[in-house]
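Quick one - first record:
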Amino acid sequence: MLIRLSIDMGENKVFSFDSTKSSETLIDSQLIDGFFESLRSYSPSPDLAIQKIKFSNMMMYSKGFEQYSLQLLVDEPMDEEELQSYFEGLSDKIDVLLVSSSPLNGSVFDEETFKAKLEKMLIPMTQDPITTITKTLGDFVKQEITPKIVLTGLNQAGKTSIKYKFFERWSEALAKETKPTTGADFSHHFQEFLLHKIVVTDLGGQSVYRNLYLDQEDLWKGIDALIFIVDIQNPESFNVANNYLIDMWRLVSKVSERKPTLSIFMHKYDPKMRESLNTNITKCVDAFKDFNDHANLYLTTVEDSSSNIALIKALYHSLPGVVFFRLLELNFLSYFQNEILPEFSHLATRMSIQGYSDIFQEIKLEIRDNAVKIGAAYGLSFQKQWLAHLMGESVSKYEKTLSDSMILNLDNDHLLISIKNWIDQGFPEELTTLLLDGLLEGILKTLKIESLEIVERNAYTTWKVDFQRK
């Protein structure tokens, strides 16, 4: 789904369109503005391939054309064929708009007309019903798993400040007063919202320690999230930091059974300095260009909520098993039974009528697609609730809600989800399974997990989710 389109026509003529879904991305629009503006120089020439950069768990694509270049920000990756077709379709429409808005009889380029027509053209590309849903769930057998994240980077990059603001809920002022970490600091933090313990390793970035870390293979085993902090205000450090990350990532890849997610926080992007940091962002992205395929980039500061948001988004995708388990615990079945099923009660009663099952077969793909969209909205709303809890804006108690209607069995790499059917309440098993399958797939899409299969059908339908990261 399109989040933003930017058309760069040179001479400071830049036209941007934000979809209504941009508000669901849990990122300050000013950060998107700063990132796009800083990367104008990255706009490729027409003879170059499409350029790709991960930003805040979204994908930015750039493509050059004769009269302009396009930058897209979308909420999930697109394959090469789809992407090429998308750009060509946009280009054809924009070319028509440019002709219709071009000077006639000595007139000037009508920017307002162009922008109005552009917005009208793009709106259909951003239509996607988003339904906020709540959650709950059930009895489970759970193997205790303790996720491990590592905060690393050069000294004075701001790692410890980010850690204390998020895990200890320190104020902005207090977080900025932290002293540099000496050596490696290991700590256990209980995340109230996740109801889960997380091991956090904060690695001091002084040069005397960096080589020592790279000699200790055990330090890098079993990592779920590697978060590399870069001081965006210090461009002289970019190349040294990149070389350090190259050595680090090589070692992590060697010793890990599964690679962790990699996030690069371009930190100290302080509000009062943002206009002066555009060149630095471009330099930083260029310095770390070898990690475009591996890393998500974030602009962060402890002076607002951006560092907390970045950590929520990084952990959301780094700990899919823990997060998905928690998503299901928070009233999922209650919502499904009390909100979703009643909407389909008329369909359930008619499916027993002669000939109506044929109609159901014709519309079931549409039903499932809508369920996928609702599930995706559920995943996104979870991030917002997490932030509200972290910022003290939510007074709800995020407790486990138990039910004998669901059994969850989680280990390191797999989750088995067994949910009862609703035949005794008059709902055909085919309908309830179809809806649940779509909802679960939608949630997993927000976690970048595509492995979902039904492994058993009886009084309970059982799904298996594979969280193994390649």
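second record:
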Amino acid sequence: MSTTEITGEFKEREERAASKLGKQAAKQGIALLRGPSGFTLTPQREGKVLSPAEFAELPEEDQQRFTAAMGDLLELLQEANYRSDKRNSQLIHREDVQSAIDAHSHRANQLQEQLREEILKDRIRIETEGTQLAQVNGLSVLQLGDYTFGAPTRISATARIGSGELIDIERETEQGGPLHSKGVLILTSYLGERYAKHQPLSLSASLVFEQTYNLIEGDSASAAELCALLSAMGDIPIRQSLAITGSINQHGQLQAIGGVCEKIEGFFDICKARGLTGDQGVIIPTANARDLMLNQALVAAAEASRFSVYTVDHIEQALELLTGLPAGMPDAKGIYPEGTINHRIQLRLAEWIALRQHYAGQDKMNE
């Protein structure tokens, strides 16, 4: 008798596929788990008991998919079943599953709590109200084993007269990875395409992640970095009640990033601890809207207009939210209207060009 080895790869996520196929797959998967584990899973009743398909949706970060990672799902079901038994219930309710998720987070979130404490004690500077010049709340994701969480990070920029240099301090200190450096180079290309098509970019600038001591990798902060830089160039204050995440392309369009739910929840937790004002929120790429599977506390705050999640397609839409000013559209001569973000940046660059020409003329006279 001969045997043949067949290589196969199992999906960890599956499309809902117009609900029927997705739900059937979830039911079949949980049915396999139910037998040897002794679970009592009952279809949804009165809107409070989870159906098998809903179990599969809870751990997933996509509104259009459910998880097919049966190992993780089994662990969740085991703990939810335990909590249901403690209540002497024959059914696993939604609160049992949420309690299991919360307990898992509590067992693994020591670093998250330490960061939160440092921020709330102002040892790590993250502001959630008022305005600041050239300072933006970026968002990052940290992973410890199978536990991931989001946290805000202050990104700051400086801008002055120069000849087009942009210093990425993370890269200069070898603290930034290649993907992060790529993001900075892309935003540099955007600056040239937007403001220096017909004139030199008389700018010298720098960017840095404040109070970070580990490797910075990924391009999901490039939108925040660009907003900080444009704020410095135009001398335009930025609202600190908002945070932003997203990568950009050379045309300023925002692109989808990973860990969007953790990032939003990380900033929300800090805002909630300090007191929600209704002015706080997070800006994300429109492409990430389908990924939102946020916790119930955040959803309730959003429904009560105490916290907001904004979706944008372009960096200028994000700047309008962060500054309260219109971005502005150029006229036939390429001049932006007064009182707009782009007019302030255009005016500042023109001043720096004039100063460079003035100093260059003085140098020639002194030769």
